[in-house]
Design goal:
This protein is mainly beta. Helix content is about 5%, strand content about 45%. The protein contains one helix and ten strands, in the order βββββββββαβ. The strands form two sheets. Strands 2-10-9-4-5-6 form a six-stranded mixed sheet. Strands 1-3-8-7 form a four-stranded antiparallel sheet, with no helix packed on it.
């Protein structure tokens, strides 16, 4: 059974930092591109960052480019998101899953569930 467990959220002031962690299980983590997503109540889940299977290629939403950094440890089935110089608009529940195109493709049926996510709040 595919599972994701996110942690590391919290309340920080604007300009502060958070480091999020995602531990995945139930599938061969090292074979899949992975992504971080963010959602606020009543809004659609948005893509924040994506990392390649080996970690050498990363992509970011325009709003976080240069301030967020995604990494992974395939030996530990773990993905991290380092968030620096945080702004209030970064507030939301952060969740991890495989990359969006995988979720919408033939293998998507294996990755339909989400973890509980971790709440990040940026406020003074």
């Amino acid at each position: 059974q595919v599972q994701f467990v996110e942690s590391g959220g919290g309340l920080v002031q604007p300009g502060g930092s958070l480091r999020l962690s995602c531990v995945a299980s139930g599938f061969t983590f090292s074979r899949y591109r992975m992504s971080w997503y963010r959602q606020n109540s009543g809004e659609e889940r948005e893509l924040v960052a994506t990392i390649s299977v080996g970690g050498g290629t990363t992509e970011y939403a325009h709003s976080v480019k240069g301030r967020f950094s995604v990494s992974r440890d395939n030996a530990q089935n773990t993905m991290l998101l380092q968030m620096n110089t945080l702004r209030p608009e970064a507030t939301g529940v952060y969740s991890c899953n495989v990359a969006r195109d995988i979720r919408s493709g033939p293998e998507g049926r294996f990755f339909g569930s989400w973890g509980q996510g971790t709440q990040g709040t940026v406020s003074s």
